[in-house]
Amino acid sequence: MCGIVGYVGFREAYPILIKGLKRLEYRGYDSAGVALLDQESDLNIYKAKGKVADLELEASKHDINGNIGIAHTRWATHGEPNQVNAHPHTSESGNIALIHNGIIENYATIKAKLIKEGITFKSCTDTEVLVQLIEFLQKGHNLTLAEAVQQALKKVVGAYAIAVIEKGNPDTIVAARKSSPLVVGVGEGEFFVGSDASPIIEYTNKVIYLEDEEVAIISKKDGVRVVSLNNTEVRAEISELALSLDEIEKGGYPHFMLKEIFEQPKTLRNCMRGRVSKNHKNIVLSGVLDNIEKFKNARRIIIIACGTSWHAALIGEHLIENLCRVPVEVEYASEFRYRNPIIYKDDIVIALSQSGETADTLAALMLAKEAGAFIYGICNAVGSSIPRITDSGSYIHVGPEIGVASTKAFTGQVTVLTMLAMTLAKAKHSITQEDLTSLISELDTIPDKIQKILELNDQIADIAKIFTYAKNFIYLGRGYSYPVALEGALKLKEISYIHAEGYPAAEMKHGPIALIDQEMPIVVIATHNGMYEKLISNIQEIKSRHGKIIAIVSEGDETVKALADYCFEIPSTLECLDPVLSTIPLQLLSYHIAVCKGKDVDQPRNLAKSVTVE
Ligand code: M6R
Model-level pTM? Predict the structure, then answer.
């Protein structure tokens, strides 16, 4: 939610900031703004409702010079998305400009106090309170900018990643974070700030990840100093980024989502690299092996997640329970954290999150940690908040996911959960070596099988055109395929704005069947596994009510083909590995329907990639 970027150095700041905002636009895109300090130390601020392109249009009419600046792309929380509420926000005198990602929860109390002191507010945002408070404290106590930021942050409750500049101080950015991500890039005589490393990687691969309640005083002359809110010096560790530029560019694809769907054979090979033994006898998931006694003795595994990650968790539940015979509970992080859950010290709580920053997942994990459970993270974004607070974990290693609709992260999460279940099953002897070897051998074929499914792209694009009329879709699956149905429905609704519901196929007759008529498209995952025969009965029920059936079937299937209106054939695999394959045509179907409807697939309305507010 919201992307922030800052630059101080010897180059023109504006082009770096705009490029940075474009890379961060996946985080929010309802308004954008930039603040620049020019040679005369004038503070120029430009803002626009809409996307970064709208900001560029606005800024092109004005002075965009300066070697220092901060910029922001917004996902509105407090105050509607308009020009006034867009960041940067300024203090009463107009001397201080601030950008913010997060939420100031006690903004109303502080605002009331500041209004009593005679301060006038221009916007409806929580953020403006922070910049006004900084100046109020600075003036009242004769503080430097950094000191005023420290004092102000001690008074706020909530989450923040901020960057602040002030008139007359053209060498310094003050940045700080708590529960929202912030990276400082360290170049030669130039420094960067970003919500993630994507705006930075083009210029330097050296970064500092700030911890909660740390303040970075970033000076062109003196470099980066990191201090606590109480001004205690912190030894800032410089890390090297293992990110390359082509990972964050479209590489010839029209959308990041399509690029990321097509990357899956490669991303899953990366996910398995070094973890699947060559002779297929063993899986080496070090986070689990290093803590194998904890895993073996776990009373229960709880997986907490949101959105697509929650769907991957449901598949994990099947995998772990089937292979390891350990009870698993899957929880929405937002529900878990507020319902006073029972957590035992011998529970293992796994947080599943692509971004590693989702506020609800992070808070739920903290709760589990406080209750004494062993906490484990399965994340994609390296160095993000969840991996930094967990006892152990496994990265999914699928590379940056930029399309707001999650695709390659989902298949990476399911693959890591599969490897986790295999590792634990081997340790608990709940699987024979023979079964394990055939499972590992089959897992190793999955990237090639996905490559084959991607050849269906043109066929799926043609069929997608037929369904742009639809106002509703139903997705059905059973067993391992039920979470795939949920995921297919979520993918469709978030990027095409068509209402879609996923159901366990047998539940249909308990209500949703009433919706079926000749207009209703029903996507059925009917691969030749598990409850295939029972699914055929469900398909017959739809057929007799004239629903339009789009089926995902195993290669060579004739029975479902005879019943369905449209079929996508995918290679056969073991039942527990089916979800990773059957989800691919559903990703492509949603993508093409959304494109046919002219929707912005990479940046769907009202959404943001990292949900860093609850
Ligand atoms: O970064 P996370 O995996 O924690 O994100 C969770 C959800 O916000 C995310 O999966 C969301 O549902 C996606 N837009 C789905 O495509």
Answer: 0.84
